[in-house]
Design a protein that fits this description.
The complex is a heterodimer of chains A (about 290) and B (about 290). Chain A contains nine helices and twelve strands. With about 290 residues, chain A is an alpha/beta fold. Chain A folds into three domains: about 150 residues, 3-Layer(aba) Sandwich (Rossmann fold); about 60 residues, no CATH class; about 60 residues, no CATH class. In chain A, α3 crosses α4. Chain A is globular. Chain B has about 290 residues and is mainly alpha-helical. Helices cover about 70% and strands about 0% of the residues of chain B. Chain B contains twelve helices and no strands. The longest helix of chain B has about 30 residues. Chain B is elongated. The N terminus of chain B is likely disordered. At the A-B interface, α2 and α3 of A face α1, α3 and α6 of B. Chain A: InterPro entries: AAA+_ATPase, ABC_transporter-like_ATP-bd, ABC_transporter-like_CS, ABC_transporter_ATP-binding, P-loop_NTPase.
Chain lengths: ~290, ~290
């Protein structure tokens, strides 16, 4: 397994405040990595340093084998960047914008094919200022992938999407992965991270507090399950590390069917809120 | 993939001479700069022609000004063989250079920075030089277009005569080129002062004042001496003086403050402002806005 992106001890201060406080990060080639974290946790700062848009104060960074702070046009031709929402190039038509950006890259993809992939073929001749929020975001993605990047940065790509558009977008990202593209994604949507990411990293107050596969984050796979059922018209609840045995016992108690039975493992959201909650308290106590 | 592995192994021996050489950032080859520059030029011109509101403002403003001044102030200027209308026409040609370079670029670059277009471009392999080539095309189209309109109105309605002497056309070309370069560099430099899309007054207001003290709206020779001296520090006065030397009768030079066209000093002042503009650009140009971290 080769490494597409590697950071060690990444630090960035704004004034006295540390936006990034020693972040170590590895993203493997071909992987989709999701960076989660509350607002102000340093996600955008981290991503912009990795994209070569921002300087770091200290730490070592290698992205596609190059330090982004010393990168040139050859390196930029190998990455694709979808920034947070922006309304620019409002005087251009959709097709013109994609062709323009394609022409910057030595080995770019066919602009029409890219427009089809993001579902904007019908809008090719529409002025970008006339696009809806979701369409505009898909154009942003088109501009990010038209160069045929090896590594794609997506900063909150699906903000403002309706659920159907979000599903389509996930399909697009999965198809990019299957063609070998590495993806670093930041998002506020935990279902998005769970659906797309091979691994997620949780960034809180400038520190990466945990990195794991979504189904294993925070010991989620080993966490206690909560069993609920109804007894004498009341809802009962029991947390247990062995739900199967507990339900078997319940079943003998009820002589068969258990009324209103459900077994719930903590969701990614529960684990995430737990992680950022305990981190904040820890920070606050210092 | 093979290139990546190679680069990784180079990093392992970083510190050795070979590693440092391979990792050194390179400039894009000139062929690439020019190829992408042509793309940017087409994009810039397209954006310019599609911005109808700005286009009308840019092209109509000097015409309306000229028609207004030309209808209020008529007749021969005392002691010369030139008319007020002719002098205003040359002043407005000077103003076209300011509009097409300084004003156009200050607003365009500020708005591209504000809308994050610059930041987005920065993430691509587009060379910075290609971006500026595009801006050159935008300035050329805006400036030459305005001047063409101005010459048509000037010759048609204001009694302006086109020079027949080739040396005067030569003067026209170099004053235009050096003047437009100074204005463009200053425009890009000043764009950093405009922090949001509606902060245009910070550039627009000084330009208006500058045009007054430079004799665009009021005959320069009739301005009070201290005002003339202030005007002489800035490029607008010299641009207009250069245009007067192209389009007005030779005898008019005796009503200039120095009793002559001062082409040498004119070139020197405009060139100095090119340097000031360039330094301002190098010092302040940024691909991102100040509100963006």
């Amino acid at each position: 397994m080769t490494t597409a992106l590697r950071a060690r001890g990444l630090r960035k201060n704004y004034g006295d405040a540390a936006a990034l406080d020693g972040v170590d990060l590895d993203v493997a080639t071909g992987e989709i990595f999701a960076l989660l974290g509350p607002n102000g946790a340093g996600k955008s700062t981290a991503v912009e340093i990795l994209e070569g848009l921002r300087d770091r104060d200290s730490g070592e960074v290698s992205v596609l084998g190059t330090d982004p702070a010393r990168a040139d046009h050859r390196w930029r031709a190998r990455i694709g960047v979808v920034l947070q929402e922006a309304r620019d190039f409002t005087m251009l038509r959709v097709g013109e914008a994609v062709r323009q950006f394609g022409s910057y890259y030595p080995a770019h993809r066919d602009p029409d094919e890219v427009l089809a992939a993001v579902g904007l073929t019908e809008q090719t001749r529409t002025l970008t200022s006339r696009l809806s929020g979701g369409q505009r975001r898909r154009l942003d993605v088109a501009l990010g992938i038209v160069g045929g990047p090896e590594l794609l940065f997506l900063d909150e790509p699906t903000t403002g999407f309706d659920p159907a558009a979000r599903r389509q977008f996930w399909e697009l990202i999965r198809s990019l992965r299957s063609s070998g593209t590495t993806v670093l994604l930041t998002t506020h949507y935990l279902d998005e991270a769970e659906a797309l990411a091979d691994r997620v990293g949780v960034l809180v107050r400038g520190r990466l507090v945990e990195v794991a596969a979504p189904e294993r984050l925070g010991g989620r796979d080993r966490a206690e399950a909560v069993v609920t059922w109804e007894e004498d018209g009341k809802r009962c609840e029991q947390a247990t590390p062995e739900p199967t045995r507990f339900i078997a016992e319940l079943a003998t108690l009820f002589h068969g069917e258990i009324p209103g039975l459900s077994v719930v493992r903590p969701s990614l959201e529960d684990i995430y809120l737990d992680l950022i909650g305990s981190e904040s308290e820890h920070e606050g106590g210092r | 993939m093979s290139t990546m592995v190679t680069t990784d192994s180079v990093i392992d021996v970083a510190g050795t001479r070979a590693g440092a050489e391979a990792d050194r950032p390179r400039r894009a080859p000139l062929r690439e700069v020019w190829r992408i520059g042509r793309v940017r030029m087409a994009v810039e011109v397209r954006q310019l022609t599609r911005n109808t509101g700005l286009l009308i403002y840019t092209f109509a403003l000097p015409v309306v000004m000229l028609l207004l001044f030309g209808s209020i102030f008529r007749g021969r200027i005392e002691g010369t063989s030139a008319t007020y209308q002719q002098v205003y026409a040359t002043g407005m040609i000077g103003m076209c250079v300011i509009n097409g370079g300084l004003q156009n670029l200050a607003f365009a670059v500020a708005s591209e920075r504000h809308s994050k277009a610059l930041k987005r471009l920065r993430t691509t392999p587009m060379p910075a030089a290609s971006y500026f080539l595009g801006k050159v095309a935008s300035v050329l189209v805006a400036t030459v277009g305005q001047i063409a309109v101005m010459l048509i109105v000037g010759v048609g309605l204001m009694g302006l005569t086109l020079p027949t002497d080739p040396s005067r056309w030569f003067t026209f070309v170099w004053v235009l080129l050096v003047g437009a370069t100074a204005c463009s560099l200053l425009g890009i430099g000043l764009s950093g002062l405009i922090r949001s899309e509606n902060g245009a007054a910070i550039v627009w207001l000084p330009i208006m004042v500058l045009q007054f003290v430079s004799g665009v709206f009021i005959l320069f020779s009739s301005l009070p001496r201290p005002v003339q001296q202030i005007g002489a520090v800035f490029p607008v006065k010299w641009l207009c003086q250069g245009m007067r030397s192209v389009f007005l009768p030779e005898s008019f030079k005796y009503s200039e403050p120095a009793q002559g066209w001062e082409h040498g000093r004119l070139a020197l002042v405009l060139a100095a402002w090119c340097v000031v503009g360039l330094l301002l650009c190098l010092k302040t140009f940024s691909w991102r806005g100040r509100d963006d971290g």
